[in-house]
Structures are given as structure tokens and as C-alpha cells.
Amino acid sequence: MRYILFTLILFPLLAYCKPGDVIWSYKTSGSVFSSPGVSDGKLYVGSYDNFLYCLDSMSGAEVWKYETKGYIVSSPSVSGGKVYFSSGDWYLYSLNTQDASLVWKTMIGYASSSSPTVVKDRLYIGCMYYLFCMSAKNGKPIWNNWSWGVYVSSPGLGDGMAFVGINDQFHGISVNNGKIRWRFDMKGGVSSSPEALNGGVYFGGNDGFIYCLDTMTGKLKWKYDTGADINSSPCLSDGKVYIGSKSGSLYCLDAKSGKLLWEFKTGGWIETAPCAAGGKIFFGGHDGNFYCADAADGSLLWKFNAGSVIESSACVVDGRVYFGTESGTVYCLDSGTPKGLSAGNAVSGQDY
Description:
The chain is mostly beta strands. 4% of the residues lie in helices and 48% in strands.
């Protein structure tokens, strides 16, 4: 009954919302560094309070929450009626999206900040010295790749390869058997999660460079120096690469040449992955602001002051944008994008 009354009050108010206005917010008991995933009207996000939350994406009402024995910074992946995530308790989890019942959990040996990538019936995740490929159905290992370096970023997939960075190298790994096909040496580690498209794999380095490598050979196509560490992950859209840096700027580069097209300066680090939707770019920063910029020229369209560091990357679904904050609040804002448009961690289980 409370849910029905809340819905009856909420929806008439939506007619008065303008882009950047808060539609709803939900407070957890810990910092939210996890990036929300939205699927079938539900939002999934982890918190430092050890819970994975499932909220109604329209109203923000709690549907269920599942407690682990460790913090959750992993961003959930939703596929086939299951939600997958890792926890600081060293386990990887699969839950039913309807009722949070446990499907399986697998010990991965270390706390992982990497987020799972689910493709068909396989799941890929980095954890300390290992990159794992597991069955999404039962959590049993298919293969693992051991490295001297530490896997921090989440794996990206494309062209039959898994791409992931470690302390001082970037690897292209066969998804069939887990063997390293090529290595790219660099100075500093890789916290940025790569994206692959049209024969190029894109990522940021702790050496301050944005890189584009050939997916099949690992040879350098181009690189661009931001002058500061990059923990942000790239967003690829309409032939452009969008990525943030600890320089305090969001960069837009030509994906083919690496030429700088525009730069948007903020008042703090940008560690979130930008989200492109409807000709707009959405991202948050350490200055406590959440920004919406024009994707074509980088001009500011609107910003929202969340009053807290934002390291949770946004997703856009049906005219709304979702993200979390260090203070523990999950926000839903009017995005000003068309209904029926989704971007960011809104679609999981893709066929690469």
C-alpha cells in the first residue's frame, strides 16, 4: 500500500521535472563506489556497508537487499535473470534477480575491485594475480591466467580476446584458453577498464596516457598525454573516445587518430567512466558535482551538486540517469534524454 501511495504521489510530480532535477534518492549505510546497473525496471548497486541493493528504478523503493561479509565496490552485471558481483569477503556471487536467493558463490581468493563481465554463459573477472573465466551457470572455473602483476581493472572483450591491465603491462588474452596472445609494456599500472571497438582497444594508464592499441597485435596506434593518473574508463561513441583524468578534465578524442577534440575542466579528479546518451555526456567528479555536457563540443548543459565525491559511473535509462556517491546516496535524476534510450551499465550479457 505504501508503495502504491508513493507511486501516485511521485508520477504527477515528474511532469514538472527538468534535466538535472532529482527524481528520487536512496540512502545506504556506506559509501557507494559501485556503478549501478539497471535491467527490467530494477536498479542493482553495491555499497561499502556490505549490501547489494535492488531498488525499483522508477520510484527508488527498496525491493530487496543481500548482505555479504565484505564491502562491495564491484559493479553488478545482470544477465539471464541473475545478478553477478564480487565482495570484499573474497567471494564472487550469483543471485536471482527476483528474490535475491543465492544461485552460487565461488571463492576467488582475494578481495576484488574488478567487476564481472558476462558474455553468454561465461563470466570474466580479475582478482589480484589472476584473471578468471568461469561458468555463469554454476561459478565453476573454465580457465585462469596467472600474472606477476595485480589485476585491478575489469576485463574488456572483443575480437575473441579479453583485455586487461596489470602493474606495468597490458595484456590481450585468448577467451578460448586464457593464454596471453600479446603484451604491451608501459610505465605504471592500469586501473582503467578497457573498451574494444573496430580493431582498437582503448584504456587509460597510471602514467597519464590514453592509449589505443591494435586488438590483434597489441601494437600502439596512438596515445595522448593528460599529465595525470587515469582511473577513469573510456566511453566510445560516434567515433569519439571520452575519458576522465586526475588532471580534473574530461577529454574527447577522435577514436581513429587520437586528436583532441575538446576538454572539459572541473574542480577535482574524474575517476568515473563517462556515459554517452542522446548527444550528451554524463559523469561525476571528486568536486562533488555531477555533469551533463554536450557530446559535440563539451559545453556544459547542466550540473547537479551532490555534495560528495562521485566515483560511481552513471547509467542512463528511459530519460533518467543513475549514480552513487561517497556519502552513500544513490541518485536518480532527469537526464533530458529520450525514452527508450539506454547507455552505460544498463545492458549486460552482451554478445561480443
